[in-house]
Amino acid sequence: MLENKSILIIGANGTIGSELVSFFESKGHNIFTTTRNTNSVSDRCFFLNLSIDEINLQKFNRNFDIVIICAAITSQKFCLNNRELSWRVNVENTVKIAKGMREAGAFIIFLSSNAVFNGELPFVNSQEKATPTTEYGCQKLEVENQLLKLQHKISIVRFSKVINQNMTLVNQWIVNLKMGRRITPLDDMLISPVPVSFAVLVLYTIVLKEFPGIVQVSSNQDITYADFARYIASKIGVDQNLISPISYIDQGFENVSKNTTLDGSALTHLGLTSPDVWKGIDDTFGFHYNE
């Protein structure tokens, strides 16, 4: 019974982690978390800072049945410009925790990314050779490779961009568009947005089944950020002439994928299918969805 299992969520303050905590707690499950805020430490919330060189697993004064690793530095720019720090957080200490928890008997769920691929193929298969083109993608792939050596009781979940209603970029678009201000979304950077509610459902189902292996999650198509912005504008009823798309080249991005969709066939084993991109946006931001 899941109710009798102890579940540790590492990175409980992030987009996915915070939603996971709320979801599990709403169902009465036995949840433990980590925090970098010393004022939030309790008997169910442990202090953990992955940027610290030494990771002492003995601070977790119990064994866990399931450990979900959500914590990471996800900014591609930051990973590129701060390789030593981001490698320590995203690779070295993440692997230490995962291996240590696995050795103690826990089922490990690691949140990875479509960035492990070069973006040349749409709906790329999970068994396709991973050839990342960004520092962030290289870091995620390194953790994947280390964890897959453990062979069992490991689940790697590759997500494309996960969105929620507090997504700063989109909310800034909405505020500016309603005030008649021009916005400049990228017209040559793609996104295959996954609603955080769906991401949580996937992870919850993996926990229920203790489903091992690689699971890939994206929406059912790619759109550009400019497409995203135009759709938002249409939903809030503002002039689309306020949208002036620009290129990622002018924004200093390391690299941009030609495709961000992933083959989601493993979702069928969980009783799920890849979400529709437009319905996902509507559900996330509270818009009415038109078939």
Keywords:
291 residues, alpha/beta, Rossmann fold, 7-stranded parallel β-sheet, two-stranded parallel sheet, 11 strands, 34% helix, globular
Tally of helical segments: 8
Main pleated sheet: 7 strands, parallel
Overall geometry: globular
Assigned CATH architecture of the domain at 2-164 and 193-218: 3-Layer(aba) Sandwich
Strand order of the largest sheet: 3-2-1-4-5-6-10
Q: Output the CATH topology of the domain at 2-164 and 193-218.
A: Rossmann fold
Mean pLDDT: 92
Helix amount: 25-40%
> Which strand-content bin applies to the residues?
15-25%
Alpha-carbon Rg, integer: 19 Å
CATH class identity of the domain at 2-164 and 193-218: Alpha Beta
Ranges where pLDDT stays below 50 over 5 or more residues in a row are none
Order of helices and strands: EHEEEHHEHEEHEEHEEHH
Q: How would you describe this structure to a colleague?
A:
With 291 residues, the protein is of the alpha/beta class. It has a domain at 2-164 and 193-218: NAD(P)-binding Rossmann-like Domain (Rossmann fold). It contains 8 helices and 11 strands. It has a 7-stranded parallel sheet with strand order 3-2-1-4-5-6-10, with helices on both faces. Strands 7-9 form a two-stranded parallel sheet. Helix 1 (15-26) packs across helix 6, helix 3 runs parallel beside helix 4 (135-148) and helix 5 crosses helix 7 (225-236). The longest helix is centred in the first third of the chain and has 21 residues, at 83-103. The chain is globular and about 60 Å long. The model has no long low-confidence stretch (mean pLDDT 92).
